[in-house]
């Protein structure tokens, strides 16, 4: 799935489409990483998956076109990062937040940078350290989303917003401006990822092996 997200966004970024609406189906926009698969997959799987997950975060975030998130339901952990990577977020239902520390794993550097870009460093720090998830009204106050609408209006509102953003400026001007707004993030990622990513990977592998992630899942999620 995350590889498909990466491929789709990279393809869309190179086409004539003027803007992108990013949404989910069913009860969730994205409930985050399949942590049972992380536990069962072993260290090699964790390494491949984490790299693919980071690619998907950055593919969404660095797309040069307007991207609107239509949050039809829960946007948890990785789902919240994907939403935060969009230019505008509209939420209709569910909860949103970043409970990674409650799971026992560190954030990829890209994930932290994207959350800070979306809500600012102070709010990001609170969201990350508490691990709390929030319903739409609270998410709006925190800046995690830009707008709350009824579910039956979500698609139409997201499409209208995407068109409005696309009409704001010529496509090349919008792309350049977006690149400027993201410049600090891009520079920090280039500087810190080579050092941080191996440390983060080792911790994910360790927490998958020592029962930390399994313990969280057994406390909070019914396995299907």
Helical/strand content category = alpha/beta
Q: Calculate the mean pLDDT score and round it.
A: 96
Q: Note the run of SSEs as H and E.
A: HEEHEEHEEHHHEHEHHHH
Count of helical regions: 11
Question: Total number of β-strand segments?
Answer: 8
Cα separation of the termini = 19 Å
Largest sheet: 4 strands, parallel
How big a fraction of the residues is strand? Answer: 5-15%
Q: What order do the strands of the largest sheet run in, or round the barrel if closed?
A: 1-3-5-8
- Please compute the radius of gyration using only Cα atoms: 17 Å
Q: Can you give the helix content as a percent range?
A: 55-70%
Characterization of this structure:
- With 224 residues, the protein is an alpha/beta fold.
- Helices cover 62% and strands 11% of the residues.
- It is built from 11 helices and 8 strands.
- The chain has helices spanning 2-13, 35-61, 78-84, 100-103, 109-119, 121-130, 136-142, 154-168, 171-181, 183-209, 212-220, and strands at residues 20-23, 28-30, 67-71, 74-76, 88-91, 96-97, 133-134, 147-148.
- The strands form 2 sheets. The chain has a 4-stranded parallel beta sheet with strand order 1-3-5-8, with helices on both faces. The protein has a 4-stranded mixed beta sheet with strand order 2-4-6-7.
- Helix 1 (2-13) packs parallel to helix 2, helix 2 (35-61) packs parallel to helix 3 and helix 3 (78-84) packs across helix 5 (109-119).
- The radius of gyration is 17 Å and the shape is globular.
- It starts with a helix and ends with a helix.
- The model has no long low-confidence stretch (mean pLDDT 96).
């Amino acid at each position: 799935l995350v590889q498909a997200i990466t491929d789709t966004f990279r393809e869309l970024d190179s086409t004539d489409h003027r803007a992108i609406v990013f949404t989910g189906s069913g009860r969730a926009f994205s409930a985050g990483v399949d942590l049972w698969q992380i536990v069962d997959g072993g260290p090699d799987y964790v390494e491949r998956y984490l790299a693919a997950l980071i690619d998907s975060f950055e593919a969404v975030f660095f797309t040069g076109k307007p991207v609107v998130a239509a949050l039809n339901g829960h946007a948890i952990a990785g789902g919240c990062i994907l939403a935060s990577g969009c230019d505008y977020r509209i939420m209709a239902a569910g909860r949103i937040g970043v409970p990674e520390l409650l799971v026992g794993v560190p954030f990829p550097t890209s994930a932290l940078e994207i959350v800070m870009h979306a809500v600012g460093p102070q709010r990001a720090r609170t969201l990350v350290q508490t691990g709390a998830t929030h319903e739409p009204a609270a998410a709006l106050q925190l800046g995690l989303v830009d707008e709350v609408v009824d579910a039956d209006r979500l698609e139409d509102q997201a499409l209208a917003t995407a068109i409005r953003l696309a009409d704001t400026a010529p496509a090349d001007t919008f792309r350049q401006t977006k690149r400027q707004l993201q410049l600090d993030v891009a520079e920090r990622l280039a500087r810190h990822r080579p050092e941080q990513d191996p440390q983060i990977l080792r911790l994910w592998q360790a927490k998958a092996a020592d029962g930390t992630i399994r313990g969280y899942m057994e406390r909070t999620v019914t396995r299907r």
